[in-house]
Design goal:
Shape of chain B: globular
CATH architecture of chain B: Up-down Bundle
Largest sheet of chain A: none
Number of helices of chain A: 3
Structural class of chain B: mainly alpha
Mean pLDDT of chain B: 95
Mean pLDDT of chain A: 89
Number of helices of chain B: 16
Strand content of chain B: under 5%
Distance between the termini of chain B: 12 Å
Number of strands of chain B: 0
Largest interface: A-B, 19 and 19 residues
Number of strands of chain A: 0
Largest sheet of chain B: none
Oligomer: heterodimer
Shape of chain A: flat
Strand content of chain A: under 5%
Number of domains of chain A: 2
CATH class of chain B: Mainly Alpha
Radius of gyration of chain B: 23 Å
Low-confidence stretches of chain B: none
Order of helices and strands of chain A: HHH
Order of helices and strands of chain B: HHHHHHHHHHHHHHHH
Helix content of chain B: 55-70%
Chain lengths: 99, 536
């Protein structure tokens, strides 16, 4: 298997991008974006996670099985968020207090 | 090979404490885990003894209510996070997985040793929390009680569990990479022993689920320490969110405990029935199905919370679905026994006990998955009985069966058979006497987690405490004869049971490198009746 090396320059650039995105997260937390508060925060977090996975974890050089492993993590995260949100969003449907 | 020839094995290859504490041999690390989790099991058992003593009489006369709260909490935390979760994977999985696939070690030996140290650090934190006053939240740490009301050592315990979680993740990663990359020539996926399939599925849950509980506990700690509003409604949080996150891991964690036992039972049943396993591929696939379905059912722990009825209905249906792969295994084990040449050595007795007790535990789980019935028995002793049938009747019976089955391989010594059979009988009888009355208590309405109860429940509670005493003896007896066997036991042959599998084709105990030459696999798993076994 060929070995891949990510240059130090790329690693530093990505590091500072991540720091910048963290600062952006903090700034956004103090802005009132209404119903967009959570989606914007999650979008920034997703971008940061992608940079870590693709660059720092070198997933872009990974074999299909490595991608499959990474994708399964994302799938289970979506499962956790999706089914929890399904509960939260359907709580008032029955019209019974507490249910 | 005879001991008189002074064969070099993993036990005598090196001497001294240093050689053990810095070992990278998966077999020695398994022994380190064995010693550690045995101590934790004894600690958890002490808490159980005190709980059962308190419940002998209706009045709260042995300990105060506060102390009782701490006892059941620490019993749960120690037994689940520090005994049951690491029990079979970290001891038997560590020892056997490379042997079963014909490898010399796990893929990451240093990571393996690190996992034990991480476990020990986590255990130390938790023990410190216990010694300095304990914790009273229940092992579930439900918020907002755990974040705002409890004045006990919640943070130290949480840190201990958080740290120990990484041990689980490291073990899971190691197993998956080892199974993918280090199988001997000819060891195709569908020639893998079912023990290996079970550990593969378990490892998937460890990797996918454990980070969630770690982060959940971290958030709990942040809210408790710094007042960050995540779960506390007064701070804008949602306590049900905690339950979602907690059970997303903690329900699959049940399968971390039970799947390895299922793998053990597949090995033992085939060996002592002298038959090929019935439906190999279905049992292998059902392990993966349990791992996946296990992640879809967590909401059935929350039927009486403010979870929406619609979500509850979905979780209820999915919970019924997870019974299917479990039933596939039970039916296939039963079919394997049909027309087998069955013998009843101690490991087989534990395995048969597992099938019966797990079946009762599984079927009563369906009661709890039913929305209407669950509301009636929620937080009663019915639930306590149900999960003990799974975790003790299932997981612990499997662990004891495994220890007995592979003890000759691990130590090179045979234990005396008669007391081992008596122990299996004591555990089975004691277990049922302890926990079956609790189904009735729960159905009659006795709530869990109270140190006093109405007088009409006393007879069933006395039965339960009597059973716990028998169960305790059933656990102590093996401790005695297994330790005795280390010095006085008959020297074990390479394959004392006449079992199939690569681990039986090397010496007992195995050499450090496992096999003198890399074995080549030319037949399916469980190719009974065996040809004359050769030692590699």
């Amino acid at each position: 298997m060929a070995s891949h090396v990510t240059s130090r320059l790329v690693l530093f650039v990505i590091f500072f991008v991540l720091v910048g995105l963290t600062a952006l997260t903090v700034w956004v937390a103090y802005q009132d974006l209404g119903s967009w508060n959570a989606p914007v925060a999650v979008a920034i977090a997703t971008l940061k996670a992608m940079l870590v996975i693709v660059i720092f974890m070198e997933m872009r050089f990974g074999q299909p099985l490595t991608w499959f492993a990474g994708a399964s993590g994302v799938l289970f995260l979506l499962l956790l968020i999706g089914m929890t949100m399904a509960d939260a969003m359907s709580r008032g449907w029955l019209g019974v207090p507490g249910k | 090979m005879d001991r008189a020839e002074k064969a070099v094995d993993y036990l005598n290859a090196d001497y001294g404490v240093r050689s053990w504490l810095l070992t990278r041999d998966h077999k020695r690390i398994a022994i380190l885990y064995l010693l550690s989790i045995t101590v934790m099991f004894m600690l958890g058992s002490v808490f159980a003894v005190l709980i059962r003593l308190e419940l002998l009489t209706p009045a709260g006369d042995v300990v105060q209510a506060d102390t009782y709260n701490k006892l059941f909490t620490m019993h749960g935390i120690v037994m689940i996070f520090f005994f049951l979760v690491p029990s079979i994977p970290a001891v038997l999985g560590n020892f056997l997985l490379p042997l079963m696939i014909g490898a010399r070690d796990l893929a990451f030996p240093r990571l393996n040793l690190l996992s034990w140290y991480v476990y020990m650090v986590g255990a130390a934190f938790t023990l410190w929390a216990v010694i300095t006053g304990g914790v009273d939240t229940g092992w579930t740490f439900y918020t907002p009680y755990s974040t705002t009301a409890s004045h006990t050592n919640v943070l130290a315990t949480a840190v201990g569990i958080f740290i120990t979680g990484f041990s689980s993740i490291l073990t899971g990663v190691n197993f998956i990479v080892t199974i993918h990359t280090m199988r001997a020539p000819g060891m195709t996926w569908f020639r893998l022993p079912l023990f290996v399939w079970a550990h593969y599925a378990t490892s998937l849950i460890m990797i996918l689920g454990t980070p969630v509980i770690a982060i959940t506990i971290l958030m709990l700690g942040l809210e408790r320490a710094f007042g960050i509003g995540i779960f506390d409604p007064a701070l804008g949080g949602d306590p049900i969110l905690f339950q979602h996150l907690f059970w997303f891991y903690s329900h699959p964690a049940v399968y971390i405990m039970i799947l390895p036992s299922m793998g053990v039972v597949s090995e033992i049943i085939t060996c002592f029935a002298r038959r090929r396993i019935f439906g190999y591929s279905f049992i292998a696939a059902s392990s993966l199905a349990i791992a996946v379905f296990g992640f879809l059912v967590w909401g059935h722990h929350m039927f009486t919370s403010t979870q929406s009825v619609y979500a509850a209905m979905v979780f209820s249906v999915l919970s019924f679905a997870v019974a299917v792969p479990s039933a596939v295994k039970v039916f296939n084990w039963t079919a394997t026994l049909y027309r087998g040449s069955i013998t009843f050595e101690a490991p087989m007795l534990f395995a048969l006990g597992f099938i019966g007790l797990f079946t009762i535990g599984g079927l009563t789980g369906l009661f709890l998955a039913a929305l209407g019935l669950d509301v009636h028995v929620h937080d009663t002793y019915f639930v306590v009985a149900h999960f003990h049938y799974i975790m003790v009747g299932g997981a612990l019976m499997g662990y004891l069966g495994a220890i007995h089955f592979w003890w000759p391989k691990m130590t090179g010594r045979m234990y005396p058979e008669a007391p081992a059979r008596i122990s299996a009988a004591l555990v089975f009888v004691g277990f049922n006497l302890t926990f079956f009355p609790q189904f009735i208590l729960g159905y009659l309405g006795m709530p869990r987690r109270y140190h006093a109860y109405p007088e009409e429940f006393q007879v069933l509670n006395v039965m339960s405490t009597t059973g716990a005493s028998i169960l305790g003896v059933g656990y102590l007896v093996p401790l005695c004869y297994l330790i005795w066997s280390l010095w006085r036991g008959r020297v074990a042959e390479a394959n004392p049971w006449g079992a199939a599998g690569l681990e039986w084709r090397t010496n007992s105990p195995p050499p450090t490198e496992n096999f003198a030459a890399t074995p080549i696999v030319e037949e399916e798993a469980y190719a009974y009746p065996l040809k004359e076994p050769e030692v590699v």
